[in-house]
Amino acid sequence: MLELLICSLVTVLPDYLFRRYRQGKRWGKEINFFSVWYELRWGVSACILLTVALITLIFYYHPSTSNAGPYFRTVTILSEGGGRVEEIYVENNQQVEAGAPLFSLLDSSQLAAVNSAGSQVAQVESAFVQTESQLEAARGGLRQAQGALDQAQNELKKKRDLASRGAQLVSKIELERLENTVDSRSGGVDSAKANIASVVAQRESVLPSQLESAKRALEQAEVELGKTIVYAGVDGTVSQFFLQRGDYVNPILRPAGILIPNEGPESGRYQIAAGFSQLATQVIHVGTLAEVACLSRPFEVIPMVVIRVQPVVAAGQLRPSDNLLDAQQRARPGTLTVVMEPLYEGGMEGVMPGSKCIANAYTNNHDLLASDEVSGFEALFYHAVDTVGIVHAIILRIQAMVMPVQMLVFGGH
Q1: How would you label 223-256 residue by residue, b for 16+ Cβ within 10 Å and e otherwise?
Q2: pTM above the 0.90 mark?
Q3: Is 88 exposed, middle or buried (0-12, 13-18, 19+ CB in 10 A)?
C-alpha cells in the first residue's frame, strides 16, 4: 500500500492535475467513478507498472521475513540408566548452576557392586602379605634341601675316596645308592628354587595385575554408583520437572524434565535466526545490515548485522531410507537461514528467547559507489537501490507500531 501511494504521487496525481487544470475536466463531471480508467489511463498504467517495479526492487534488494526469532537450545534432563527416583534436590522453575545435583535414583544394586569390588581389592591386598610368608617358607625349604644335598655330596665324596684307596669297606652298590641320593636331593634343590621363583612371580606379576584389575572394577562400580545422581550440565532454569519419589525414569522413554540454559550463543539472548526467501541468496551475506521488531519488545526496532549464512537450504536435506526420493514430495522451496547479532551492545535486552520477530535485511552499496568502480546509469541504479530501502524501513516501523494493536484487537489475543 505504501509503495502504491508513493507511485501514485508521480503518476496518477500529475495525470489528474493535467486533465483538471490543463484540459479543464472536472471531478464528478468528465472524471467520475466510471470514467476514471479512460481519463487517467496513462497515470493508472504508469502507477501499476511503477508499483510492481518498485515492490520487486525493494523486496529483492531489501528482503523481509516474518520467520525470525531468537531461537534457544534446551537440554533434556536424562539419567544414564533407568531406575526409581530416590531423592529430589530441586524444584520446578528453579535456577541451578552447572554441576548441581538434580535428583538421584535407587542405588542398592550399584552400592552392592561397589562393596563387592572393594572386598575383591582387600582380598588381593591380603594376598601380598600371604606371599611374604610363602616366600620365607620357600626359602627355608631351599636351605633345607641345599643342606641335605651338601650332606649327601660329602658322604659320596668320602666313600669315593675310600674306594679309590682300595678299601673293601665301600661296595659298588653303596656308591650307586649315594649317587642316586645326591641326584634326588639336587632335584629337591631345583624344586625349592622353582618354588621361590613361583612365589616371587606371584608377588611381582600376578598379584599386581589382579590388584589393578580389582581396582579398575572398583572404579567402574563407583562410576555406576555415581550415575545414580543426575547433575545439571549447564547453568540454567529447570522446567517441566515434576518428578516424585518412586517415579521410574528411563533415558529413552521417560525423561525427567528440561534445562533451559541462561548463557551462551545458543541461549536465545544474543542472536536471532531468520529464514529469508531463496531469492535473497545473492544479496544477503556476512556483514549485511538488518533490522528486527519483536513481539516481546513492541514499538522498537533493533539494528542487527548478519554474522552467519547457512550454506544449504534445509528443505533439500536427504536421509537414507527404504523409499526412493520423489522430487514432487519436496514442493516447499525452503528458506535461506541466516543468523544475526545486535549491531550495538545490549541491543537484545528485553527480547524474550523464542519471541516472534519480523526482520528486514538491507543492501548497502555505499562502499561500491565510493570506490568509483561504477558510474553513469549503473551508479544511478545503485543509488536508487539504496534509496528505496527507506521504504522498507518505514514499513517495518509501521509494523512495529501496529503489532500490539493487530495482536490484541484484531488477533483476539
Answers
A1: ebbebbbbebebbbebeebebeeeeebeeeeeeb
A2: no
A3: middle
CA distances from 271 to 201, 258, 352 (A): 65, 21, 11
Can you say how many angstroms the Cα of residue 332 is from the centroid of all Cα atoms in its chain? 28
Mean pLDDT over residues 20-47, rounded?
73
CATH 3.40.50.11290 is right for the domain spanning 63-70+268-315+333-413: no
Domain 108-226's class? mainly alpha
CATH fold for the domain made of 75-106+229-261: OB fold (Dihydrolipoamide Acetyltransferase, E2P) (2.40.50)
pLDDT at 353 over 70: yes
pLDDT value for 38 = 67
Residue with cell 643342606: 147
- pLDDT single digits (tens) 68-77: 989 888 888 8
Nearest to 302 by CA among 338, 258, 350, 252: 350
What mean pLDDT value characterizes the chain?
Answer: 80
For residue 40, give the C-alpha cell: 487517467
Contact yes or no for 307/341 (Cβ under 8 A)? yes
**Residues 242, 92 contacting (CB under 8 angstroms):** yes
Show me where the domains of the chain are located. Answer: 1-61, 63-70+268-315+333-413, 75-106+229-261, 108-226
Tell me the pLDDT tens digit for each residue of 180-205.
776 776 777 777 777 777 777 777 77
Pick the closest to residue 227 from 390, 64, 111, 393 (CA basis): 111
